[in-house]
């Protein structure tokens, strides 16, 4: 495997365990002769949740370390523009994306820093609001169009490759990658997709029509979401649950696969099916 040469650390500073983990991490990296180029705090939920991209010019061998939960990992992918591999140290709950346990860093990180690891490639999607000057924004998990209040459902039209597909009446709509299939999409009844697949899932949130089911489409498909002009002010779009924009009348949400992919650093023993079995407690008898 390629040598890991320089580290960028991203952490959720408000997490109580974070300071002690950083001390351990700095010691392990120092002993391995790997310099830390930058340490950066990811804002908490109450602060700015869309971290601006790092201005660093990355070099071969650079990698990022995310210290926190899956939300911190997603923010790290945004901050690094998905340009360098990321490994995750889990301080959260489930930790689908974060492999390494905070209390086993000495045992788990040393083999990795010696080159004993594997990388997994995940597709990314990007979305923007058109017409208008909206920028394309990347998402590893999903892009969600939902209602901004707790009131009535909204009407959403789905178009794929310029062809009308369905008119949804629901609380919102999720366009998810395989990575996001175990996140918000899973809680809304979507299928679990193998992370190596190149496909997207479109699924409504609490649809009024019971025949409105999740739809799996090719990863290269162009998706467009439209809402009536009179409902636009009640709608929000978010990327990976953080960056959020309110719709204006006549604006459409355009989504497609990004022109780059994200590499995730895993232990040499990593297996995605075993990870699902562990996190979802498959095959565990109830007592």
| Basic shape | globular
**CATH topology descriptor of the largest domain:** Tumour Suppressor Smad4
Unreliable residue stretches: none
Going across the biggest sheet, name each strand in turn.
7-6-17-14-9-10
User: Helical content, roughly?
Assistant: 10-25%
Following the backbone from N to C, one meets helices and strands in this order, namely EHEEHEEHEEEEEEHEEEEEEH
In DSSP terms, counting alpha (H) and pi (I) runs of 4 or more, how many helices?
5
Task: Bin the strand percentage.
Answer: 35-45%
Q: How does the helix and strand content classify structurally?
A: alpha+beta
CATH class of the largest domain: Mainly Beta
- What kind of assembly state do the chains in view correspond to? single chain
Q: Ends: how far apart? A: 43 Å
- pLDDT averaged over residues: 92
In total, the number of strands is 17
What does the largest sheet look like? 6 strands, antiparallel
Give the tally of structural domains.
2
Provide the CATH architecture of the largest domain.
Answer: Sandwich
What is the assigned CATH homologous superfamily of the largest domain? Answer: Probable inorganic polyphosphate/atp-NAD kinase, domain 2
The value of Rg in angstroms is 20 Å
């Amino acid at each position: 495997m390629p040598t890991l040469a320089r580290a960028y650390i991203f952490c959720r500073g408000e997490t109580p365990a974070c300071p002690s983990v950083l001390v351990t991490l700095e010691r392990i990296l120092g002993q391995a002769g790997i310099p830390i180029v930058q340490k950066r705090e990811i804002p908490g939920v109450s602060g700015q949740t869309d971290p601006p991209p790092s201005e660093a010019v990355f070099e071969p061998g650079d990698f990022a370390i995310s210290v926190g939960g899956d939300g911190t990992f997603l923010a790290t992918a945004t901050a690094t523009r998905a340009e360098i591999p990321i490994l995750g140290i889990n301080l959260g709950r489930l930790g689908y994306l974060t492999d390494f346990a905070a209390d086993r860093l000495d045992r788990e990180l040393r083999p990795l820093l010696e080159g004993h690891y594997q990388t997994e490639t995940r597709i990314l999607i990007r979305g923007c609001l058109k017409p208008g000057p909206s920028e394309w924004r990347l998402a590893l998990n999903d892009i969600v169009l939902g209602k901004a209040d707790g009131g009535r459902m909204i009407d959403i039209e789905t178009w794929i490759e310029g062809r009308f597909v369905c008119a949804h009446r629901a609380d919102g709509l999720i366009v998810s990658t395989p990575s996001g299939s175990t996140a918000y999409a899973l809680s809304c009844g979507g299928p679990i997709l193998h992370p190596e697949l190149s496909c997207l899932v479109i699924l409504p949130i609490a649809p009024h029509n019971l025949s409105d089911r999740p739809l799996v489409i090719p990863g290269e498909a162009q998706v467009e979401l439209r809402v009536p002009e009179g409902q636009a002010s009640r709608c929000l779009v978010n990327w990976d649950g953080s960056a959020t924009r309110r719709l204006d009348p006549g604006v459409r949400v355009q989504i497609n696969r990004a022109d780059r992919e994200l590499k995730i650093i895993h232990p040499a023993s990593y297996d995605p099916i075993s990870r699902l079995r562990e996190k979802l407690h498959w095959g565990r008898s109830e007592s």
